Amino acid sequence: MRGFALILFALCIDGLQAAMAGVFFVLQFITPVGGGITGAFAAGWYCFKASTGIIAGISNGIACGTAGGIVGAGVSAFAVPIGVGVDIAISITLGGILVMALAWMGMFYPGTVLGAFLGESIPFLDVLPGWTLMVWRCLSKKKAEEKAAKTKEAPTAVSFSAPSQAFDGIRAANDNQQPYAQAA
Questions:
Q1: If we measure between CA atoms, which residue out of 122, 129, 125, 117 comes closest to residue 16?
Q2: Predicted local confidence at residue 171, as pLDDT
Q3: What does the DSSP 8-state code read for residue 156?
Q4: 147 burial level (CB within 10 Å; 0-12, 13-18, 19+)
Q5: Would you give the DSSP letter of residue 44?
Q6: Cα separation, 107 vs 97, whole angstroms
Q7: When you count CB atoms within 10 A of the terminal residue's CB, does the N or C end of the chain come out lower?
Q8: pTM (predicted TM-score)
């Protein structure tokens, strides 16, 4: 049951990262235009409302709309860098919690964990389910270790039925060298 909870948590991390990558990818292509239009509309509306006359409002709206469009398009162009920063923050925090849970349950394998952290730290490669694969590998290694320890400890029927040579030649003290003497 502990494996199911860890895999579910890893799937949530990977799903969140994939969803955010998709959102920021789409925003990168939509937002320069959308950011410019929104910035122009918001700044133009504000400057128009703040003006005293209709002519001054129109000229101020055009000036503010142009500046708002430039600022909106410029700010929205940073969608991918912001997305990469948020994605790295998710990897460090939630991935760190996942690694601590693996270590607490005795399933911390440095090679597997380091490989997952390196894979998740590369932008755009972390869309792949690295955390889920890491948990699956740690679980399978732990099960293999437990199985090997169990077979090593458990005696088998073959070991009981094998003839022992340690007691060959030992006889009872009063048998007078007769192997199968009948008691009289």
A1: 129
A2: 63
A3: -
A4: exposed
A5: H
A6: 14
A7: C
A8: 0.60
